[in-house]
Design goal:
heterodimer, A: Rossmann fold, eight-stranded mixed beta sheet, 9 helices, 40% helix, B: alpha+beta, Rossmann fold, Elongation Factor Tu (Ef-tu), domain 3, Alpha-Beta Plaits, eight-stranded antiparallel beta sheet, 16 helices, 38 strands, 33% strand, globular
């Protein structure tokens, strides 16, 4: 019950639609540094955890401890957005769903998709359900990463896993006429979903850049929690 | 033994396996003139290090039992306990920490804070043992002491601060800069025994100044004198810094970090200075006992020689002269011929030969005063017993001991082995509270229980080597438990009123899951069951917990509440109510959806990065849950939770999957419900066993 309530309250439900998350091949959350890409991706991952699916969160920036901390924080924000929840119930639920989260911290220099492939293969081998999505945070989209993206594409095809990326844009770079930052513009065919986060006054605006008929929709988020700004408790 | 306790240090050397603690201890003993030749662990000379006194330890290159030794450095007595590095033997680590005043935490400058450093750190926290850190192996390729210092902060939450800077790293590691004295130390002579004090190399002066400032900044939090001196820009003396850091260390608020390479004989002497300067003396530590004659109230022990004696037996060893009992004296003094009382059983004993140890060699002493560690011959006791003067009845607080999670049946090969096996088991169970043994009355087999496969393996090997007891072992077995998952009511009448003395008792109430092993709640009102029969009811329920009705595994996590019942003025008895409780338990148990629980282990794998994916795969294939993975330099650490039943033979599998380059540690985490498919297998297996 609590699971359902939390997912209904999730900003992801309104902005992308929870069902939509795993239907995508490659998804991207873009913003310049410090706006909240990772926190938004954590909210995406939480919707899957609340649906009893496994998720893999790969970070090339954060340590394992920090990844865990981000999920704790994201879950707390989500729980708090409901209003009163029996704290014991909330903790028990977290203990349950947290087991389905695998945080992997890589050094950017030694990041290699074969390690992820070996890991995903073992799911098949042990006939275990595949993770619902994989989050990749910290990949440098300003560099030459065609090979990595190709490899990840083939992982997506082989294991039917949706991959969501954090993509850092820069303040001083002009947007394309479709409103895409250059990091997305150059690879837009690869991505079937993309969102852009930007600060507007004292809120964060989430603009759907790519997502079928949802494209160009805009939502306001609270910067401290990444919850929808206009939701009543 | 010196009586000026300011000049006594009781320290432990704790670290992850293969961090070089035995090598470091060897160097310490060499520089303090306790030994005159350095032997390496698994040395080419075939001798092995002095601290590893058991053959098995030498062979495997790990330290199994804590060997205690003492040495002298700059007119101070240092008692050192070398602690085992494998998690399977953590009871040894815990016991050592119980009797120590301070610890040198060794970290590898390449691997940094590893899984067991975290375990050891938690244990240090539990016993509030102050520590200093030594970043060893600075000569190794990939050495990075600054990273390790950061890891101490990030991973273990220590307020770590560098007290030295390395002069060169990896193969260029020449010495260290002392940031307190602002001098450079080089280590000359065949074994680095001559410390050459020189000026700081010019190219490092700036770096050293900056690091010193950082260090003084951290230390100033613990001394007003130092803070004032900084604010007034007055001269900062070495003593001011040392006093501040020492205060911080004793309060467990700061961890000074020292550097070097024990293997290359670099910077061990400054570490010994640091032990004296920063680790507490027995006078600095508050030790408490419980007064068994006064409602178990805690009593602060004084390191005074005139007070009644209080000593803790923390380790036993079988020597050629009988049982050798290692003791830490907390209060008073044990002298030859003194009468002591074992507060566990109240037995009086007479102190026989007293010695202090240097690994396997011993030196006879007349007395062991408060604050010292020594050993005593001729006393029969168990590890963890408290010895006191007859005038008091104190007990040192109970040590945290975990329940065994794995068992193994052993069968002696012949009659002689049978006798020796009994002797060995008797000794081992006394030495190690996590090692247990019993005879299975159904099969007649002797069962040994412990904390892991390796734990039991080592004891089987020790039986063979030390006691010439050859045994064949069965398959390791997991200690399953049963529990219930929902509330169920009972209303059971035990009635036997056909001829002779009758029996009558009725109990009603309910059972429900709970977090404790067993809880009994009495809600009987109006004397429906007379008060004198309530304990019998509890006893009856408790008796059912030992062997679950489902599969005969012990039952845990049950709260029994009784709220109704009936008795008969003549026919009711304690026996009748015990029987009624047993019947009630059986009646409710089946309705409460019983399940099987299995031990889940926290497994941490450290592997070269290239094998990270396949190691995670190995965990997946074992019903394991990966909690996370972290790359640290060339190595990856994978944290996971895996059922113990899936971990048998894992070391071989891991070795072959990683070309022998990965290692893992395993410790008990919790009990969790077994999945249905596995539960069915266990039931089937149990039924087959019964048939056989």
């Amino acid at each position: 019950m609590l699971k359902k309530d939390l997912n209904l309250r999730s900003p992801i439900e309104k902005i992308i639609g929870i069902e939509n998350i795993t239907n995508s091949n490659f998804g991207a959350v873009l913003s310049r540094a410090g706006v909240g890409k990772t926190r938004f991706l954590v909210q995406i991952a939480l919707t899957q955890l609340l649906n009893d699916k496994k998720i893999v969160h790969v970070s090339l920036e954060d340590s394992m401890g920090k990844i865990n901390l981000r999920y704790n924080e994201g879950y707390t924000n989500l729980v708090d957005s409901i209003g009163y929840v029996d704290p014991q119930k909330a903790v028990r639920l977290w203990d349950d769903i947290n087991l389905n989260k695998v945080g992997i911290s890589y050094n950017e220099a030694s990041f290699d998709t074969t390690k992820i492939k070996d890991y995903l293969k073992s799911f098949k081998k042990a006939q275990l359900p595949m993770p619902g999505i994989m989050i990749i945070d910290g990949l440098n989209f300003d560099g030459e990463i065609t090979d990595i993206l190709e490899d990840l594409k083939s992982l997506h095809q082989e294991f039917s896993i949706s991959i969501w990326f954090a993509m850092r844009s820069h303040r001083d770079e002009a947007l394309s006429k479709e409103g895409y930052p250059v990091q997305l513009e150059t690879r837009k065919e690869l991505f079937d979903k993309a969102l852009f986060l930007q600060p507007v006054d004292n809120k964060i605006q989430a603009i759907v850049l790519k997502d079928g008929n949802k494209t160009n929709q805009k939502f306001l988020l609270e910067p401290a929690t990444m919850m929808l700004a206009d939701q009543d408790i | 033994m010196i009586r000026d306790l300011k000049r006594v240090r009781n320290i432990g050397i704790s670290a992850h396996i293969d961090s070089g603690k035995t090598t470091l201890t060897e160097r310490v003993l060499f520089y303090t003139d306790r030994i005159h030749k350095i032997n390496e662990v698994r040395g080419k000379d075939g001798t092995g290090a002095v601290m590893d006194s058991m053959d098995l330890e030498r062979e495997r290159g790990i330290t199994i039992a804590s060997a205690a030794t003492y040495c002298e450095w700059k007119k101070h007595n240092i008692n050192i306990i070398d602690t085992p590095g494998h998690v399977d033997f953590t009871v040894e680590v815990e016991r050592s920490l119980r009797v120590l005043d301070g610890v040198v935490l060794i970290l590898c400058s390449v691997s940094g804070v590893q899984s067991q450093s975290i375990t050891v750190d938690q244990q240090m926290k539990r016993y509030e043992v102050p520590c200093i850190a030594f970043v060893n192996k600075c000569d190794r390729s990939g050495a990075n002491p600054a990273k390790v210092t950061r890891q101490l902060k990030d991973k273990l939450g220590h307020n770590s601060v560098l007290m030295q800077l390395p002069i060169g790293l990896e193969d260029k590691h020449k010495g260290v800069i002392d940031l307190v004295a602002m001098k450079a130390y080089y280590f000359e002579g065949d074994h680095g025994e001559k410390v050459a004090v020189k000026e700081i190399p010019e190219n490092m002066v700036e770096e050293a100044r900056a690091a010193r400032e950082e260090m003084i900044d951290a230390a100033s939090l613990f001394s007003e004198e130092l803070t004032d001196a900084i604010l007034e820009e007055a001269d900062i003396t070495d003593d001011m810094i040392k006093t501040a850091v020492r205060t911080g260390v004793i309060a467990r608020q700061i961890t000074p970090v020292f550097l070097g390479s024990a293997y290359k004989n670099k910077a061990v002497q400054p570490l010994l200075d640091a032990v004296i300067d920063y680790l507490p003396s027995p006078l600095d530590i508050n030790n408490e006992a419980i007064d068994l004659d006064n409602n178990e109230e805690s009593v602060v022990l004084e390191s005074s020689f005139d007070k009644p004696t209080v000593a803790l037996a923390f380790k036993l060893e079988d020597g050629q002269y009988g049982q050798l009992t290692y003791l830490r004296v907390y209060q008073g003094c044990i002298a030859k011929g003194d009468t002591l009382v074992n507060s566990r059983d109240g037995k009086k004993v007479k102190a026989g030969r007293l010695i202090r140890m240097h690994a396997s060699q011993m030196e006879e002493v007349e007395e062991i005063p408060a604050g010292h560690i020594g050993a005593m011959f001729g006393i029969d006791c168990a590890s963890g017993d408290t010895f006191v003067s007859p005038s008091i009845n104190y007990s040192m607080l109970a040590m945290h001991v975990m329940e065994p999670v794995i068992s193994l049946s052993i069968v002696p090969k012949d009659n002689k082995a049978q006798i020796n096996m009994s002797k060995a088991l008797n000794r081992f169970t006394k030495e190690d509270p996590t090692f247990k043994t019993y005879v299975d009355h159904e099969t007649g087999d002797t069962i040994i229980q412990g904390m892991g496969e390796l734990h039991l393996e080592v004891y089987v090997e020790r039986m063979k080597r030390e006691y010439q007891a050859e045994v064949t072992t069965g398959k390791p077995r997991v200690a399953y438990r049963e529990t219930i998952t929902q509330k169920a009511v009972f209303n059971y009448t035990h009635k036997k009123q056909t001829g002779g003395a009758g029996q009558f008792g009725r109990v009603a109430g309910f059972v429900e899951p709970c977090d404790e092993d067993f809880e009994f709640v009495n809600k009987i009102t109006g004397g429906r069951i007379p008060t004198q029969y309530i304990p019998a009811c509890e006893k009856g329920f408790l008796a059912c917990m030992h062997k679950g009705p489902k599969l005969e595994f012990p039952v845990t996590g049950i709260r029994v509440t009784i709220d109704d019942g009936a008795y008969h003025a003549v026919d009711s008895s304690e026996m009748a109510f015990q029987a009624a409780a047993r019947g009630a338990f059986l009646e409710a148990y089946g309705k409460a959806k019983p399940v099987i629980k299995e031990p889940i282990m926290k497994v941490v794998i450290e592997t070269p990065n290239e094998f990270q994916g396949s190691c995670m795969g190995l965990i997946n294939q074992r019903r394991g849950i990966i909690q996370g993975s972290q790359e640290e330099g060339v190595m990856s650490v994978i944290e996971s939770q895996v059922p113990l039943s899936e971990m048998f033979g894992f070391s071989t599998i891991l070795r072959s999957a990683t070309q022998g380059k990965a290692q893992f540690t395993m410790e008990f985490s919790s009990y969790k419900q077994v999945p249905q498919s596995i539960a069915e297998e266990i039931i089937k297996q149990k039924q087959e066993e019964k048939k056989a």
